[in-house]
Amino acid sequence: YLTKNRYEVDFLTQSISGKKKLYQVVWDTNDITTMTREQRALKEAQAELNIEGEIVTADSYILNILRSAE
Question: From CA 51, how far away is CA 70, in angstroms rounded?
Answer without folding.
Answer: 29
